[in-house]
Design brief:
The protein has 9 helices and 2 strands, in the order ββααααααααα. It is an all-alpha fold. It has 2 domains: 58 residues, Arc Repressor Mutant, subunit A (Orthogonal Bundle), CATH 1.10.10; 124 residues. Strands 1-2 form a two-stranded antiparallel sheet. Helix 1 packs across helix 2, helix 4 packs parallel to helix 7 and helix 8 packs antiparallel against helix 9. The longest helix is centred in the last third of the chain and has 24 residues. This is Helix-turn-helix domain containing protein.
């Protein structure tokens, strides 16, 4: 029997535990990368997840693949927000800020791997959900007609980067200021 990070014996369930192990690894990576940054050792992630390093490497051979898996969860959350009938760009920005406050390492990882197909798929999903919110914002008069998906994607990237780069204790205030500036730039003029 194997011993987990809490010292509790666990029976190796082999392939039957693959999905559960993958989920545990993603959750552990989110926590570890948030605490230690992207340079955190894989062994710390495996230990936190309660799985062996071999299991970690089977699921995620590289850190970028693990970061992408965490970002896919983030995109799932953003898509959920955007699907709400009354969702606005402000709701999206709130969610991006919340994610950026705890995921600075992921912002760095994804920005550094723009040519990786999995990262490009995440970008396409983001553009799609932004497109729906842009259309809704224009229809309600909350968004200037000359603002497009690419403009809002740029705002999302700048917002995430600005919040992620701020010292942890200042992120909330920085997010409020950035949101205020970005919102003014997106509103209808005239």
């Amino acid at each position: 029997m194997a011993e987990s990070s809490e010292g509790v014996s666990r029976r190796n369930r082999g392939p039957a535990a693959a999905a559960e192990n993958r989920r545990a690894l993603i959750d552990a990576a989110r926590e570890i990368f948030s605490e230690q940054g992207l340079a955190a050792p894989f062994s710390a992630i495996a230990r936190r997840a309660g799985v062996g390093q071999g299991s970690l490497y089977r699921h995620f051979p590289t850190k970028i693949e693990l970061a992408v898996a965490v970002f896919e969860d983030n995109i799932d959350d953003l898509e959920h927000v955007a699907r709400a009938a009354d969702a606005t760009l402000d709701d999206l920005f709130d969610s991006v800020v919340a994610q950026a406050k705890v995921s600075a390492a992921f912002v760095d990882a994804v920005a550094a791997a723009r040519d990786v197909p999995a990262v490009q798929r995440i970008g396409a999903r983001m553009i799609s959900l932004i497109g729906a919110l842009v259309d809704r914002g224009r229809a309600t008069g909350a968004l200037a007609d000359d603002i497009g998906r690419d403009d809002v994607m740029l705002v999302v990237a700048m917002l995430a980067r600005t919040v992620a780069d701020a010292p942890a204790g200042e992120r909330e205030a920085v997010a409020r200021r950035a949101r205020s500036v970005f919102s003014l730039g997106l509103m209808p003029r005239g």
